[in-house]
Design a protein that fits this description.
alpha+beta, 34% helix, 87 residues, three-stranded antiparallel beta sheet, 3 helices, single chain
Length: 87
């Protein structure tokens, strides 16, 4: 199982889009500063998680999200996958 996720920085409100097989480890990695794109801008928390059966499907959907970049559109169209904090 693969997951596409969006995390949000509580300090800046910025979003980061990604995909992983291990949601717990991935968030710990972001918050520990091990990812150049998110280091020093956290703490981060999940606001969106959507499961996929394959890495190909997950990567395709992650790219779709990155191209969309419209927070209102994404929150509306995929509201079932957002946490209450992300809505």
């Amino acid at each position: 199982m693969y997951f596409v996720y969006i995390i949000e920085s509580s300090s800046s409100g910025k979003w980061y889009y990604g995909y992983t097989r291990d949601l717990i480890q991935r968030l710990e990695s972001h918050n520990a500063g091990k990812n150049i794109s998110t280091a020093g801008r956290g703490p981060w928390s999940y606001i969106f998680q959507r499961p996929f059966a394959s890495d190909k499907e997950a990567l395709s959907f992650e790219n779709y999200l990155k191209k969309s970049r419209n927070k209102h559109y994404l929150r509306t169209k995929f509201s079932a996958y957002f946490t209450k904090a992300g809505l």
